[in-house]
Amino acid sequence: MADKEIPAVQAAAESRADPVIAEDLTKRFGEFTAVDRVSFRIHPGEVFGWLGPNGAGKTTTIRMLLGLIRPSAGKLSVLGYDPVTETKTMQAHVGYMSQLFTLYNDLTARENIRFYGKVYGLNRKALAQRQQEIIQMAGLEGREDMLTANLSGGWKQRLALGCAIVHNPRVIFLDEPTAGVDAISRREFWGLIYAMANKGTTILVTTHYMDEAELCQRVGFINQGRLVAAGTPDELKQTHMHGQVLEIDTPDPDRAVRLLKEAQTKGSLPFEEVALYGAQIHVVVPNAEEFRQPIRKLLEKENIQVSSLEWIMPTLEDVFISTVRESAEPGLQ
Ligand SMILES: Nc1ncnc2c1ncn2[C@@H]1O[C@H](COP(=O)(O)OP(=O)(O)O)[C@@H](O)[C@H]1O
Ligand SMILES: [Mg+2]
Q1: How far is 82 from 74, CA to CA, in rounded Å?
Q2: What dotted CATH number matches 242-313?
């Protein structure tokens, strides 16, 4: 009996300790609902991906969490504070890198860190220490006295992150932090995200790069203001994917996609989705084994070489497309 009570008590304590809690969060701009009754929790030290297409409501959600705009309805808690009534106290513990995060181009890297350190009220000693830590974290050693304007994209991005976390926040909101930087810099940036999470910092990150979404511990998909799915990437792949994915490799992907789409429209091969992923084609079908041969035949009849045709685990992008389609057409089965 006592054994059974302990986990329940622990669960309650853990859920109270969740650093970010949104319940039925809603934001209306006039008649338009940008965020519609969204609920989610982020656990301590977690990297939570907040994903969705442009205009889905990601930035609006973050602005409410930061206390920059007031929710129209719903409840919020960030580190136990109410962002609406305890804005200043909460903000002292929260970091934010916005899509338009501005570094001063005419200041050096070091001067930017000092500037933001002062904005956050760090004293001289704390600032000197943080400055060193951030320069090291961002890999800026040797470049600390370069003008920010002359730093390349990846360094600027890491410096922007450093400035956003100069006050050692316990929760960090990153809004498309890797937009527009090259693949290697993106990977390095994710290394920094995990280094912070491993020290216990809780992180919410938005991205439209689905390969990055796979790196998150849990994700929430938002579409037209609604949360359409949430869970770990693996959970979502197992529970939210409607259909199975066949991946086709062919030297002529554009023509193959055209043919497959024609077959889909005509209804001769009733699959759910055909899309190009880089050089490969993903076809979402009700049953991979049944559809494999007819698809191969269709393509080979038109002299399109099929180098491989495999039943694969869906990507998060497949899951996202499938989830959005289902939420738009709830009757579809
Ligand atoms: N201040 C505002 N007034 C009116 N509409 C807004 C305002 N801010 C955002 N929106 C609208 O809300 C929707 C969600 O925007 P946003 O949260 O920026 O999306 P995302 O960050 O997912 O691209 C968009 O349609 C946007 O035009
Ligand atoms: Mg946005």
Answers
A1: 12
A2: 3.30.70.940
